[in-house]
Amino acid sequence: MAGLPVLYSFRRCPYAIRARQGLRAAGFEPGVSLELREVDLACRPPELLAASAKATVPVLVLPSGDVIDESLAILHWALEQRDPQGWWAGWRADQRATGASLIEANDGPFKHHLDRWRYPERFEVAEPARHRAAALDILRDWNQRLEAGGWLLGSRPALVDWALLPFVRQFRLSDPDGFDAEPALAALRAWLARFLESPELAAVMAPPWGPQRSWPSPHWLYHLALAEDWNRARTQELYPWSTRGRRQADVGFVHLCRAHQIASTWQRFYADAGPVRLLTLDPAALTAAGLELREESAPGSGELFPHLYGGPLPLAAVRHHASYRPHEPAGAVA
Ligand SMILES: N[C@@H](CCC(=O)N[C@@H](CS)C(=O)NCC(=O)O)C(=O)O
Q: Is the CB of 171 under 6 A from ligand 1?
């Protein structure tokens, strides 16, 4: 997929949803005119860190090498390419300015209060209800605007609607019953309900826009493990396996693979196994632990695979572990 814009995204992130919606509206299609790389924020790929020092999602890397690492700027870039639904085109300067100030209120105070209400421990907030009340004040203001035409700037959706809706969705998801019972929000609820049922949202939450699994980086190494072996290893602080049913002490090395070899390795050795975990390994941590990586051919495959020599797999080099299935379940909107 060389030569395509690359979008680093995180399925549930409202900023990333915003960017995906804009790119989709502009006619981009993952796997065709854009490469989408789903990111696990607990284990960001080195390619994302190299593109953007702040490494938040979304980040768009253009074929020219230019990097856009703000969701709003990605939205604007997308609509500059094509804007068939008039999210930006056709609005007057004063309407655009109103939209910009609403986005400022969303990305600033509304998100601030939303986060502190949702995650009081993380933000060391003593009275989360105060933050919910402050966010509701902002929602009531938006509700008034929506009463006239059903959309923030009038009777059809504009960029500002798509920019704010993922955040209002997040607010409702935090306490759906409380949100649904809130007085003076009827127009806003109708606006959000249309969004929640829209093909626009469904499309960006399901593959290929919203994959369930993270993008495997060619800079990392991988190891498939039976979930029961991995769980035991974590309690015993030792993973003694080389591959399924064979110990490192007997084989002499640990079988690893690269990003493009994960699915075929699973197919060959784990297809009939129970739950399997995919371990993501940092090669630098392996060599820092005094171990040696050798590229060796695997009998029957005609391919070179990385083999780890010098001891069992060090748990400290495992950057991430997640359940692995080669085929993704259908993406639910959650
Ligand atoms: N201003 C940024 C905010 C993006 C953002 O904060 N994304 C979150 C995920 S929802 C993130 O990457 N958080 C990780 C971090 O802040 O390190 C934008 O609009 O793109």
A: no
Q: Which domains does the chain have, with CATH numbers?
A: 6-81 (3.40.30.10), 93-205 (1.20.1050.10), 221-323 (3.20.170.20)
Residue 35, pLDDT > 70, answer yes
pTM for this predicted structure? 0.93
Q: How far is the CA of 72 from the centre of ligand 1 (A)?
A: 11
Cβ contact 179:170 at 8 Å: no
| pLDDT tens, position by position, 231-258 | 999 999 999 999 999 999 999 999 999 9
- Residue 77, ligand 1, Cβ within 6 A: no
E strand or H helix that includes residue 236: helix 227-236
Q: Are residues 20 and 61 in contact, defined by beta-carbon separation less than 8 angstroms?
A: no
From the CA of 307, how far away is ligand 1's center (Å)? 36
Tokens describing residue 167: 């955040």
